[in-house]
Amino acid sequence: MSARTAAPDAIRPTDFLGIDHLLSEEERGIRDTVRAFVRDRVLPNVGDWFEEATIPRELAKELGDLGVLGMHLEGYGCAGTSATAYGLACLELEAGDSGIRSLVSVQGSLAMYAIHRWGSEEQKQEWLPRMAAGEAIGCFGLTEPDAGSDPGAMRTYAKRDGDDWILHGQKMWITNGSLADVAVVWASTDEGVRGFLVPKGTKGFTTQDIHKKMSLRASITSELLLDEVRLPASAMLPEANSLRGPLSCLNEARYGILWGAVGAARACFESALDYSKTRMAFGKPIASFQIQQQKLANMALEVNRANLLALHLGRMKDNGQLRPEHVSMGKLGNVNAALDVARTARQVLGANGITLEYPVIRHMNNLESVVTYEGTADVHALVVGGALTGIQAFR
Ligand code: TGC
Ligand code: FAD
User: Which of 94, 98, 173 maximizes ligand 2 atoms within 8 Å of its Cβ, making it the mutation to test the pocket?
Assistant: First the structure.
């Protein structure tokens, strides 16, 4: 049979381009397991968590049992999956809520990765198995009240005192801050920027949650206060001594986000598609109007394009070809695309688009955090611009 006459697969609105066929059986299996968890455990509850601005602590243990915490890391109780499989998990988690994906990103790609990449063998043995199981939660403190996009301007410092370190300063906007059993805190020292493991309850270390957030409400965001905190030498991550330490962790988390954004976009698109087929106006389903079909077509295009970009970058990462500049392009493009899809979907839902009865405004509001954290869209545009022109435009 010629290619022309071969019956094409039917178009599936939820996988228009048949991207599923590009995944291995193992990848589809991991994707389906995470999708089922989100369907059964997250979706029935997340509207309430968002409204109440909370996330149940026990979810960390359940995510550990699911095997997604540090799943792309090797050893120490981590699953050692491919980067693509990790990305697919992030996509499904964020189709539930960006807050759930954040919990997993911060745990696996920031806190665990920092210890895995820059920590001592003792630090890895002490923390990673419990963190992979979700028995211990980690957070990652880089941002400060006056140092966000420019972490090199941090004021938190650590100085040696005999064999000990004294750590002093303040970190702001820290996901999982007050939940965490261990905070990875980055500080300026005479030897460059260094990371410290600060266990909960250490004298002088307190947290304060940030309230009145209108975004990422199913996630705890805190301030970390470090008042002359005395730490043993063994608390310092020995292998990191410049901004490269924390920035290398950000590459990992940004990679997860560029996948996760596809999930948030997909959830918004599917909600709008369903709604448009049943909502009647002027005697017809609104899906029958050309303007609405154009919106649906554009949303489908953005979701599929973002998904293909994520998959391409995932394959590059698995082949060892992914550079931070590629990650910046992915985060910039996919989060912006997801925001466009969410805003369009919200309009398709009319007044229902503003309630938590539907997932769309929750995703739309969450994405305002996602486009800001892990490097704002401006920062990533400047990283890409720098790679294109050879001119660094941050300063
Ligand atoms: P620059 O002078 O360019 O570099 C300093 C050192 O870092 C190295 N480097 C990198 N290494 C690994 N990966 C990268 N992406 C790197 N970018 C730079 C560089 O080679 C150098 O190394 P060395 O050994 O020579 O010292 O640094 P800069 O101060 O000019 O800054 C560059 C810039 C603006 C791109 C960077 O500061 C940046 O990315 N800013 C954004 C900050 C940010 O993204 N913060 C995120 C905080 S964590 C968070 O938001 C968690 S939310 C999680 C959730 O809930 O999901
Ligand atoms: P600023 O850096 O003050 O930027 C303000 C504006 O100026 C932005 O639009 C920015 O794009 C623009 N701008 C800055 N510099 C330039 C430039 N050179 N050229 C052009 N424009 C520029 N941080 C952590 O360390 N750990 C966490 O777990 C964490 N979780 C977070 C969770 C949430 C919900 C949020 C909202 C933030 C979180 N952050 C976390 C902080 C986040 O990384 C920062 O908010 C982000 O890096 C931006 O910093 P800023 O808010 O200080 O903005």
Answer: 173
* Atom 55 in ligand 1: residue holding the nearest Cα: 102
Pairing, β 138-141 against β 182-189: parallel
In degrees, rounded to 5, the angle at the alpha carbon of residue 69 between the alpha carbons of residues 80 and 56 is 165
Which protein residue's CA is at the shortest distance from atom 44 of ligand 1? 375
Nearest atom, ligand 1, residue 324 CA: 15
CA distances from 128 to 56, 108, 120, 137, 174 (A): 21, 9, 11, 10, 20
Query: Which parts of the chain fold into alpha helices (H)?
Result: 25-37, 46-52, 58-66, 83-96, 98-104, 113-118, 121-132, 244-278, 290-318, 324-348, 360-370, 377-389
CA of 143 to the centre of ligand 2 (A): 8
The pTM of the whole model exceeds 0.90: yes
Domains of the chain: 11-132 (1.10.540.10), 138-242 (2.40.110.10), 245-389 (1.20.140.10)
- Per residue in 216-253, pLDDT (tens digit) is 999 999 999 999 999 999 999 999 999 999 999 999 99
Locate 96 and state its tokens: 């539930």
Active site annotation includes 191: no
Q: How far is the CA of 184 from the centre of ligand 2 (A)?
A: 18
pLDDT tens by residue, 351-392:
999 999 999 999 999 999 999 999 999 999 999 999 999 999
